Amino acid sequence: MDLPVDEWKSYLLKKWASLPKFVQDTISTAETLSDIFLPSSSLLQPEDEMFLKELSSSYSVEKDYDAPLFYREEGNRKFQEKEYTDAAVLYSKGVSHSRPNTEDISLCYANRSAALFHLGQYEACLKDIVKAGMHGYPERLQPKMMVRKTECLVNLGRLQEARQTISDLESSLTAKPTLVLSSYQILQRNVQHLKIKIQEKETLPEPFPAALTNAFEDIALGEENKQISGASLSVSLCTHPLKGRHLVATKDILPGELLVKEDAFVSVLIPGEMPRPHHCLENKWDTRVTSGDLYCHRCLKHTLATVPCGSCSYAKYCSQECMQQAWDLYHSTECSLGGLLLTLGVFCHVALRMTLLARFEDVDRVVRMLCDEVGSTDTCLPESENLVKAFDYTSQGESEEKSKIGEPPIPGCNVNGKYGSNYNAIFSLLPHTEKHSPEHRFICAISVSALCRQLKAASVQAQTLKSPKLKAVTPGLCADLTVWGAAMLRHMLQLQCNAQAITSICHTGSNESIITNSRQIRLATGVFPVVSLLNHSCRPNTSVSFTGTVATIRAAQRIAKGQEILHCYGPHESRMGVAERQQRLSSQYFFDCRCGACHAETLRAAAAPRWEAFCCKTCRALMQGNDVLSCSNESCTNSVSRDQLVSRLQHLQQQVCMAQKLLRTGKPEQAIQQLLRCQEAAESFLSAEHTVLGEIEDGLAQAHATLGNWLKSAAHVQKSLQVVETRHGPSSVEIGHELFKLAQVLFNGTDICPLLH
């Protein structure tokens, strides 16, 4: 996903193993980007490019004009099964492969409008109706479309437009009575029903202003921080010989306070499941629903009414505006490289997009600055090699004095000392060149080199054909692709430590579910220069959330003035033990964690966390030990083998799964009886905060909610909350999910007061 596909990695590892030792040593001991990139690039042979081309062709993103009919028929099948979301996605796939101004695309838009209507997305439905008409929707089908349009307008409260649409429809039927009698009668009944509905709507009060429901999404930081863009006045940027750049509190900060709100400098949507190679498909076309089908490829907004790229079938957007912005900024270059970019992985794609988003003045300034730093000894070098060495600057001298060129004391800041979310800040992020394995350096360098050669070929083609759809590939960087390659290699190495997983909350369960379950999914990979300033703690004092490409950092607890602002890079104390956390942080981020959580856990005797612990059947104290567990209560002499307890736990988990199946199949009463038996068994040997007990309480809450027993449901959700808080902490995303469940239950049970606390 982040790195190239397995076939390309395996191929390059074999190539690496076959290289002479002196070549391996050259790359292994290289201290600069140029000493890695130039030798590796020279090793890329035509047969290597041919193998990569074959791999890339398996992930073709070209339009196939035979596909729309297939996707429309598959969408119709899902529509008949009332799977409207899947139907909408399949119709969107048909749109992505269609020619403009054809019956294919008009029918796909029209059918998608029907799916969107059933999902209650009336604005999107209206837009698709307009698009269907623009692309030549058959006149014989227009009356049915006008009825749907009227229904949308009525539901949106746009009654004057609804009346006008009905009038236009009646005029059309009178002027061109082409419908058979039965269809005409059905249409007349629908029209009369809509007229009655309009009259009823006119007597209802005005709806609650939609703008007010989105108020919390637009919360601003308040007064601008003059030192750090996108940060509040509560934080400042500092440096330390060991910690490097980091943020500290300038005042006492309260829980929930907004500290940073930053839009990603660059982001690339993760396709979810990789598109299957064509030879692996049962059909010629892929019908799976992935993140790439559900989110805008530029702003990451969730949408079922995607707007496709006009030149490829992969890129999709939430609007025409997003599509045009993406085209102007980067997609005009990326479009023809879609299959190659999917093969080379997200990190390579992000590295390319970073250079595309850089502007001439920014990059030229950086190049000039770094060339000056290299000094006069390099002026006799060929221009391309001299510029490549320029990009080695912060690899060689990340901690060196920068007084020669008067650079501000904190890397990434401008001459006025402000750290912004820009390319200068991106460039200052550490690539840790010397810490990556030789094999990883080689894979990255060869992949970037292959991409550069394709960029050069595409640029030549654009100049030869002079096609308006093909754009020169070096709009924002030096035209020398060797320099561009060195920049992309630097960015690709930076990403292992500085890439941020952009996440979203995915709601699960059927549309009929009373209580909605949710889970966090990784949606995209982005780079946030300001967020990257935060150091890691396994017990962070902040939480991060995302709205599209915007990251929001809030205080998760009280932070005293002068205290460092800390963020979790993934390994959290509530999710894994200290040994696993430190191993992951060392292998990915190249540091040994010494945070308070790791220090405290190292000092404690090794013991199972409470959410995995067994308890004594007599006194309920925790059991401890290895193969044989003994009661931790000194006055109790009970002991039992671990294998026996593990066997009981596995049997209990099977019983819980059976109860969950009963709940899914509409048998809540039987599920409750099964879960109560499981609860009794669990309490005899599991700790009160054990994860399985939390699952039982959650199941009981859902079963009682299904039966309308709201007070009982709320009581079980509150018990589940206690388990989740022990497992994940009071400021975790998981506790937020449980609180949302509780809010749904209390709201349905009309117990409003607790919702407002």
Automatic annotation (TrEMBL):
Name this polypeptide is given: Protein-lysine N-methyltransferase SMYD4
An annotated GO cellular component: cytoplasm
Catalysed reactions, as listed in the record: L-lysyl-[protein] + S-adenosyl-L-methionine = N(6)-methyl-L-lysyl-[protein] + S-adenosyl-L-homocysteine + H(+)
Any GO molecular function: histone deacetylase binding
Keywords for the protein's UniProt record, in alphabetical order: Cytoplasm, Metal-binding, Methyltransferase, Nucleus, S-adenosyl-L-methionine, Transferase, Zinc, Zinc-finger
Residues in SET domain copies: 233-570
Broad class of where this protein is predominantly found: cytoplasm
Keyword Lipoprotein: no
Location(s), subcellular: Cytoplasm; Nucleus
Domain of life: Eukaryota
Species in which this protein is naturally found: Mus spicilegus
One Pfam family per UniProt: zf-MYND
